[in-house]
Amino acid sequence: MLALLGVPLGSVDARQATDDPFPAGQPTPRDADDAARAGVDAVVNDNRPQGIGGPELGPVPAFVGGSDGLALNFATHRVYATRYDPHVEGSVEVAVPDQCAKFAALGQSSTLRQYNCPAGYSLGLDYRVVVTRANGQSLTIPVKDVGPWNVDDNYWAGPNSPRPRRLFADLPPGMPEAQAAFQNGYNTKANCTELDATTATDKTAGADQFGRCVLNPAGIDLSTAAAAQLGMSNEFVTVTFLWERLQPLVVAMASQDDPGGLTRLGVINSCGAAYVKDGALSGPFQQQLNCGDGLAVTLGGNRMGVMNSCGALYVKEGALDTPFHQQLNCGDGRQVVLSSGRRVGVINGCGAAYVKEGELTAPFQQQTACGDSQTLDVSTRRVAVINGCGALYVKEPGVGSDFQLQMPCGDAVAVAVSANRLGVVSACGAFSVKEGPLTSTFQQQTGCYDTRAVAVTETRIGVINGCGALYVKDGALGGPFHHLLNCNDGVAIQLSSNRVAVINGCGAAYVKEGDLSNPFQQQLNCGDATFVTVAG
Fold it and tell me: What mean pLDDT do residues 135-148 have?
């Protein structure tokens, strides 16, 4: 199975070739004493729910619920909030560590171009956040400033975002760089500077993108008037970013645990058309969806599923020219998984997980309540769910079996399962796998901050690491990895029992078959691959 994390697509030099460290204005915080006090508050008055987070864990996933389903449609994370004095006294506003969001929010199209902001920062997006306290009190607040700490750390950007994370892309989505620097010593610098970015200190500590000593873990700043309306000081809050709409996440089953499954390759090209080929890699593709209508393709056993542009799910069985059977309506598909064991798993529009087994006409069986599923994976005998608080639960062998807790709240951000293996990416970005019974011990495969995407089959493990290099191992979990792509050349990965599929750094799709030492065969040209999956 595949688990996709944030995909880095470049970076921005915030200084724009000038001696001024802040050519677009100094980000918050702007008072060193206030910033240091907020750091003390973060440690002494940590208001996160018991058992969640901590210095070693990173971001606290937000519980996404509520009748309006707001957080289910937009990126939502639990981060530390501090206060600042805005340029306009009494203004109710927030600062986020993304200068491009600030420029777009203020309608500054020329400044967006000046600082090389991606085209995804449209002036027509809703650049507001919903800030919710632990007591449920919330406020919708516009973005008008930049900070805390960084100006190019859009940490809320998820997979396939049109505004990919520009800096610190080795961190998990939802982890502000300042939090990693403050809690874990990320980006440690000797003689990190004061807030002016020029006065050196004698400290060695986690630093921001300007080399300044990070004094607190803030991921958002509220103006004094905004904080007053919420009745809050410095504390962890849940933040929903209204310009960062969630993309439906499709996870394709690697059919290792079904030796009788069909050998197939599926792609989505740059115009959004879906194509699948049967058999040899040199064979022709057959179009399944037209341009603009394909979000993803999934393969499992003798089935193929497509999620179209409106979020509807269709699955067909057998030959590629057979008709599709609709499984979900428009707007009701957030995630879908096909297993080679005739299972279809989905997370629907309200955030509930469902699984069906057997015929495509069979009913779905509910696995979690609305708002309690962040991600789902299924295999022939397992169902895995990361719930609303970031805990990992797995059940086997039946769809109606009881879930067993595998990781506590706040400690799981991605999961991948096969029939006998369970892989998980922790909140710090480390990848671990266990084999055999669910009571067995996880074996760590990568360190913290060193995982971008993973795939798991019964005999193979694939990882795109923190620098964007691709590694795959065959056989035992303790065996060596084989280096297949260099740093910055791995964007997406998928595995089956006999194939390795990748999208590389230029956006081309390649697949190799058989031994890991065999050459890759190109399937789509540079700039033409947005999704790839394999089976067989």
Answer: 91
Q: What is the pLDDT of residues 189-227, one digit of tens each?
A: 999 999 999 999 999 999 999 999 999 999 999 999 999
Identify the CA nearest to 509 among candidates 494, 491, 522, 493.
522
Q: How far is CA 351 from the centre of its chain?
A: 16
> What are 281-338's pLDDT values in tens digits?
999 999 999 988 887 788 888 889 888 878 788 999 999 999 999 998 887 777 888 8
Q: Residue 509: name the closest of 529, 534, 494, 484 by CA.
A: 529
CB 453 within 8 A of CB 251: no
Coil/strand/helix, residue 216: coil
Residue 308 three-state SS: strand
Q: Does domain 249-535 have CATH number 3.40.50.720?
A: no
- Start-end of CATH 2.130.10.30 domains in the chain: 249-535
Residue with more model confidence, 468 or 345:
345
What per-residue string of b and e applies to 250-280 under the rule 16 or more CB within 10 Å gives b? bbbbbbbbbeebbbbbbbbbeebbbbbbbee
Q: What is the pLDDT of residues 51-60, one digit of tens each?
A: 322 222 233 3
- Percent of residues, the chain, with pLDDT higher than 70: 88
Q: Tell me whether strands 490-495 and 482-485 are parallel, antiparallel or unpaired.
A: unpaired
Q: Where are the alpha helices (DSSP H) in 398-527?
A: none
Under a CB-based contact definition with an 8 Å cutoff, are residues 305 and 338 in contact?
A: yes
- 323: exposed, middle or buried (C-beta count within 10 Å: 0-12, 13-18, 19+)? exposed
DSSP states of 330-368? TT--SEEEEETTTEEEEE-TTS-EEEEESSTTSPPEE-S
Which whole-number Å values give the CA distances from 390 to 49, 53, 57, 62, 149, in the listed order?
12, 10, 11, 8, 26
In this structure, which amino acid lies at residue 289? L
Is the pTM above the cut of 0.85?
no
